[in-house]
Amino acid sequence: MIRIGTIGTGDIVEKIIENIKKTSHLECGAVYSRSREKGEALAKKWGIGKVYTELEAMLEDDQIQMIYIASPNSLHYAQARMALEHGKHVLCEKPMTPSYGETKALFDLAVEKGLFCFEAVTIGHAPNFKLLKEHLKDVGRVRLVLCSYSQYSSRYTLLRQGIVTNVFDPAFCGGALMDINYYNIYEVAALFGRPRSVAYYPNLYENGVDTSGILVLRYPDFVCQCTGAKDTWGVNSVQIQGEDGYIYVDGSTNASGPVKVVTRDGEAVYDHQPDGHQWYYELMSLDKILGAGDMQQCRDLMQASLDTAWILEQARKL
Question: What is the pTM of this model?
């Protein structure tokens, strides 16, 4: 059994804890929060035995083997590095870090120490994403990739009122690119690797944060558009157009909905995720990888995260 200590008390932490309880090899053993009140409330709700208000104390707990990080983006690198240096496996919410170099440094340290280090992105673990990869060949030579994920944020309403939260604070590496468009970019990077060129066209708020934007990726054989917005909403989808057909996935990239494949011979819909939310499949996958000690699968996921981090870094330079 691998006991996990969590950092953070937001909604995503509860989704992770809820699905940890459905696994065979994972267990939530401790909660860390700077606020004892918040930490104790989370622990009481989910029946977790330990609450820490000092991170170092949790990292020194020999009964905790893995750390789950759901703090603001700007804290990920330091906290993940501390965990690895204490000999703990790491599961860190996306983005792993704001930069390619820091992400690579964490993965290199994990490999050196023989530890698992994962970026918590549901896409790489989704059965429907694996189906999408399997059926790419059905549409022939890919020419266009179109990913759209727009989700109006209640925190954008606060921003318009002059209240800046972490997700819209440049100091915390906030913004639409790092938050919502990240899922589009990860999906494309996991399918096709790094592009030849990157161009980002953001809508900027007065504090300099991007509240929405369009990223254009140019590959040797095709061009890709990734649209992400936290200041609007609309129809979300993924469409991959090839010379012999197209693949259409309704909904946001992080949800990995049913895969519709259309060719001149007809169409078919494939769905291996009928009974659960994306976090369920993510934790089931991690449970299997960790239970089997499958370091190669971990390294494959690391590569997708590294390619995503590289694209993000190029976009943020523009």
Answer: 0.94
